[in-house]
Amino acid sequence: MSGPSLAPYIMRRPWLRSWMMPFAKWYANASGYRRLGLRADDLIPEENDTVQLALKRLPPKEAYDRVFRLRRAFQCSLAHQLLPPEEQTKPEEDTSYLKPIIEEIEREYKEMADLESMTIQKRK
Amino acid sequence: MVLPAAVAPRALRAIQQPIRQVTQKRGLAAAASGSFQYEQGEAHSVQYASRDLPSATTTLAVVARAGSRYQPLPGFSDALEKFAFKSTMKRSALRITRESELLGGELSAYHNRENLVLRARFMKEDLPYFTELLAELISKTRYTSHELAEEVMHVMRLDQKGLLASPLNMAMNSVHGVAFHHGLGTPTNATSSSPFQKYIDAQAIADYSEAAYARKNIAVVANGADHQELAKWVKEFFQDTKTASSVYTIKNEPTKYFGGEERIAHASGNVMILAFPGSSSFTSGQSFKPELQVLAALLGGETSIKWSPGFSLLSKAAADFPLAHVSTVNQAYTDAGLLTVTITGKSQDIAKASKAVVDALKSVASGNVSDEDITKATALAKFRALEAGQQTQAGLEATGMGLISNKQPYQIDQLGDKIGKVTADQVKTAAKSLLDQKAAVSSVGDLFVLPWAEEIGLKV
User: Fold this and answer.
1) Within a domain: A13
2) What is the distance in angstroms between the Cα of A109 and the nearest Cα belonging to chain B?
3) Chain A: nearest CA to B139, how far in angstroms?
4) Who among B98, B145, B149 is closest to A115 (CB)?
5) In terms of CA atoms, which chain B residue is nearest residue A108?
6) pTM for the complete prediction?
7) Contact present, A51 and A44 (Cβ < 8 Å)
8) What is the pLDDT of residues B123-167, one digit of tens each?
9) How many domains does chain A have?
10) What value does the mean pLDDT take over residues B325-339?
11) Residue B272: which of B427, B455, B69, B67 has the closest Cα?
């Protein structure tokens, strides 16, 4: 579920990272989800098996908080309002809680596919 | 090749002769060189032992003193067993499965009251791979919470259902509980629908694994492996094993016998187990009583010879009730034992047979046994002990148990000697003391028909 991204390439190069970070911070703030109290990982489309499995693997507290944030955001959206500033997501709270699990599941699937399609060479 | 009828038998014999000689020679040579004896060693304070049998396959086992007796909370041993061969820091569970499939290996894990055994069977030349695998399992398994939720818990619940559906296993767990209360009395799997899930979480199992697979708490035992080879690979791969856990310790509390009675209603079968204090296992030292093994063979109930009821006293006593089946076993543990007489079958027949069994026990206790029967029982007990030691699985576990508790492998020759030296007087004394203590009785099945211990003349 994780698409191609330039981020790892940029993160590996400190000079490029220091160039890009201000722009990235501005973009994340401008996209507006933080004003509805959401985190970036809440926006990952969940209508597929990988993310569904990842959601099942979330610790109970994380899963509860996620549902709370989503419902609060729906409510804000229906009421055409933003959250008061103290309840909006702060940049340091916007952590990646779901992505690592999704990546692990994708690695599992990839390994399974690789093992299923391997060819065996006999020891000589 | 077609041979004339007259020549054929002789020709066949001639063909077979050299082969037979070869196999006979090999058998004698094996016995004479003492290859049934275990060689032992120690690396990174991990005990290991091996015997090199002339075979193309090897069985390698890690025996950990972490059976249900030692678990700190319910279900921990069971969960730890089911976490075997799950993903580790180095590779995933799927990769472990696929790799051992490619090598033709067989992986299994089981636990009982005292031990947790991880076992691999494979071709002799794959020893390094499987030694590394077992070492990795005990020191680097990840114990992830999603594997616990998705796989381990599921299999544990299935095991629990299997146990609940089996009257014999229910009765065996119940009689141990009645006899020993805590420790050995802890059921091997969850026996009721009590919520064992509330005790188990992945971190706790990981903590318990550090105590269970600590260096002093495990032994590596191999059958059919070269000792030098095994020594080399154990030394290389077992250096990462933990020394202890900061959370749990394996407590070795001495076992006390209590006795009593428990009755459980069950719809799918009838079992009655009468149990008495028995002999501990051979490697335990002073509480090992070979005469109780002879007594178990003397009471018996099952025949070892086809088309005959056998010489054993209980099979004679229960001969009138063909729908009841009696068997006597001495369940040996490190510091205690339980001599169990198990009666299974139709409830009415069990009711009558149990009375006959207790009458037979009383007549043995009053010294009413012929010396010939005792001779037969001694021979049978010796044979059974030797055969059990020779069989790979029981031998591996007994050896591992001995190595952990007092650094002594299970040498079956010595055991055979000890049983052979049992005298008739010893057996009679043991039989007398049997009924002096309280019995432990457990009945599972149709409780309307199955009698209470008091009714068949047992003191509980």
Assistant:
1) no
2) 10
3) 22
4) B98
5) B92
6) 0.84
7) yes
8) 999 999 999 999 999 999 999 999 999 999 999 999 999 999 999
9) 1
10) 90
11) B455
The token pair at B242 is 């933990």
User: How high is the pLDDT of residue B27?
Assistant: 38
> ipTM of this model?
0.80
- How distant is the Cα of A107 from the closest Cα of chain B, in angstroms? 10
Rounded to the nearest angstrom, the gap between the alpha carbon of residue B185 and the centroid of all alpha carbons in its chain is: 16
From CA B309, how far away is CA B290, in angstroms rounded? 25
User: Residue A61 is part of which domain span?
Assistant: 34-116
Q: Which residues of B touch A59 (CB under 8 A)?
A: 145
Q: Which long-range contacts (CB under 8 A, 24 or more apart) does B29-36 make?
A: B30/B54, B36/B389, B36/B390, B36/B412, B36/B413
Query: Is A90 among the domain residues?
Result: yes
**pLDDT > 70 in chain B, percent:** 91
Q: Are the C-beta atoms of residues B56 and B123 closer than 8 Å to each other?
A: yes
A19 found inside a domain: no
Question: What are the C-alpha distances in Å from A31 to residues A73, A98, B117, B149, B383?
Answer: 14, 19, 56, 36, 81
Distance CA B409, CA B66 (A): 18
- Those residues whose C-beta lies under 8 Å from the C-beta of residue B435, and which sit 6 or more positions away, are B276, B361, B362, B365, B459
Closest residue on chain B to A118 (Cα): B98
pLDDT at B427: 86
Beta-bridge mates of residue B263: B443
> DSSP letter at A90?
P
Q: Which chain B residues are Cβ-neighbours of A115 within 8 angstroms?
A: 94-95, 98
Q: How many residues does chain A have?
A: 124
Identify the contact set of chain B against chain A, taking CB-CB distances under 8 A. 92, 94-95, 98, 102, 145-146, 149
Rounded CA-CA distance B233/B384 in Å is 34
A111 interaction partners in chain B (CB closer than 8 Å): 92, 94-95
For residue B378, the one-letter residue type is: T
Chain A hits for B149, Cβ within 8 Å: 56-57
> Does residue A87 fall inside a structural domain?
yes
Q: Write the CATH number for A63.
A: 1.10.1090.10
Residue B216: HSE in the Cβ half-sphere, 13 Å Cα cutoff: 10
